[in-house]
Each structure stands twice: as structure tokens, then as C-alpha cells.
Amino acid sequence: MRIPILLFFCITIAFTSCSPYQKVYRGDSMTAKYNLADSLYQMGKYKKALKLMEQVVPVYRGKPQAEKLMFMYSNTFYNLGDHYLAGYQFERFETSYPKSDSVEIAAYRSAKSYYELSPRYSLDQKDTYTAIEKLQNYINKYPNTQYRQEANDLVAELRGKLEKKDIEVAKQYLKISEYKPAIEAFDNFISDHPGSQYRKDAFFGRFDAGYQLAIRSIPRLVNERLIIAKGYYANFAKYYKDSDLIEDADAILEDINKRLNTEEPTS
Question: Where does the Outer membrane lipoprotein BamD-like domain start and stop, copy by copy (predicted)?
Fold first, then answer.
């Protein structure tokens, strides 16, 4: 026999309203709320636990249970993927309980929360810079931590993202024929990222941009800028004469030499 829809909803509401969780959630006992939140947290039922924690956190501040509660509260946001609040709450935990046994893991998860907030390289990288700062501060503060290697790997990944953004910006200037900004961007990249995997591209890009700027200049500036471009070639060849880009670089240099009426070798 089919149960009418209205009756079905009434039964569902009745059972829901009488559940142990709802009784505690709607009740006045903060002790019951704390204990149930703790139990749910241990079982990994973070959403339900969080609703109870939001009720008891203001009441338990300053009490003996507060340290454990505030760590659980912070970690609940972390496990739910709310990294803005996780980072903030873990930072508060560090400040409030500097002698806690959990302070190191709180510091790491705070820093890692900012890492999780770092967007893809093409977007604004404010959160990436913050994440690098937080992770580096953590490594400096806890040099013997078990998370040292992981933290260093995260920093390297984030730095790689900044490098990717910077090299793409420089390449975009070159692509749209903004040669002076391209040269400046490649110059900055070479200075700012000495160990980057994109360093070869930056040296070649600067040379190419210098050459393009020269051949498109007014006549009285062409030779001067071609000579400057040859200097960029020398810098490139010094480090990357065996690279896959050397043939392209040599072809450009050959044209520069022809324009300058020289017979200098191309490599």
C-alpha cells in the first residue's frame, strides 16, 4: 500500500525531530553538545560536528577544554576544504596555545591551507606569495619537523607557478610586439628566478625581443640596437650554446651580422 506523500513527509519530520542529534543540537546542554561534537569529529562526520562546535566554541573559550575544542574546530574546516577559515583558525590556535602539543601541526596546516588557496598561474598570485611566506616561516620555526621535505616541495611548486606566470607575461609582450616591455620582463625574470627551468627561454626571449626591436626601429637607432641584441645573444650562447634553441639564435645572429655588414662567426 502506498503511503500518501503528505503522510510520508510528516513521518520523516517526526523521526528527524526526534533523532538524538537533533535533541542535542536543539537542547540547552553545552556539555552534551561538546561531547557529541567530539564523538562526531572522531568518526569523521565533520559537517554535523561543525554545527555543534559553532554553538559551543564561544561558551568554552578560556576553559580547560578549549584547547582541544579549538584544534578540532580548526581541523574541521581543514577537512571540509574551507581553507580560508582553516588557515585563519589554525593561526589563532597558534597564538592562543603556543605551548600546545598540537601547535606544530596547527602551524603546518595553517601554512598548507594557504597553499591550497593558491590559484592557477594565470590568475592573481597574491595567495601564492602568502603561501610561500607562511610555509617558509614554518620551515624556519620548525627546522626538524617531519614535514620539512613536504613543505619544501610545496614551496618549490609554488615558486614554479610564479615562474610560469612571469615567463608567460614576458612571452605575451613579445607576441603582441611590445618589445621594450618584453625585454624588461625577460630581464626581471633572469634576475628574479636564477634557478628556473624557464631561464633558457628568458635568455632567448630577451635576445629575440632585442632583435625585433632593432629591426623595427627608426634608421638612426637600428645599428645601436642590433649591437645591443648581439650582446643578448652572447649571454644566451654563454649558457645555452648546446640547447635546442641555438640554431634559431644563430639564424637571428646571422641576420644581425648581415645588417651590420660584418663577417663575424655565428657561434
Answer: 29-215
